[in-house]
Amino acid sequence: MPTYHYALASQKFLLEEEPLDEVFKERYRNYEENNKEVDFWLVKQPAFLESPELQAVKAKCPQPCAAIISTSPQFITWLKLRLEYVAVGEFQSPSEAIPDALASLTAA
Q1: Coil, helix or strand for 3?
Q2: Which of 55, 42, 45 lies closest to 7 in space, CA to CA?
Q3: 16 vs 38: CA distance, rounded Å
Q4: Is 68 helix (H, G, I), strand (E, B) or coil?
Q5: What is the pLDDT of residue 107?
Q6: Which listed residue, of 2, 9, 50, 52, carries a Cα 20 to 30 Å from 99's Cα?
Q7: How far apart are CA 55 and CA 32, in angstroms?
Q8: Mean pLDDT in residue range 7-31
Q9: What is the mean pLDDT of residues 22-47?
Q10: What is the CATH number of domain 3-107?
Q11: Cβ atoms of residues 65 and 46 within 8 Å
Q12: Per residue in 84-100, pLDDT tens?
């Protein structure tokens, strides 16, 4: 069962107040140069927050929220240091409470 790591904040913070375009462009360029597959996604109103074990996290985050999800814990740690005002954590999927997260991410 894969582990996904996330940085979570309000949509306004992530999409309007922070220059995420720059962060993502640099990250995509780096991945392309190193022939690495993209392992991060920006998701509005992430469904994984509906799971019972993440209800407390959802309750603390201003709504509507957005998350940057990755299979790389280092990338999420870097984002936390870069963005500062984000909550970070992890979840496993698929699980009983969280369906296949990757299938829903790549379908979007």
Answers
A1: strand
A2: 42
A3: 23
A4: strand
A5: 37
A6: 9
A7: 36
A8: 92
A9: 92
A10: 3.30.70.1860
A11: yes
A12: 899 999 998 766 655 55
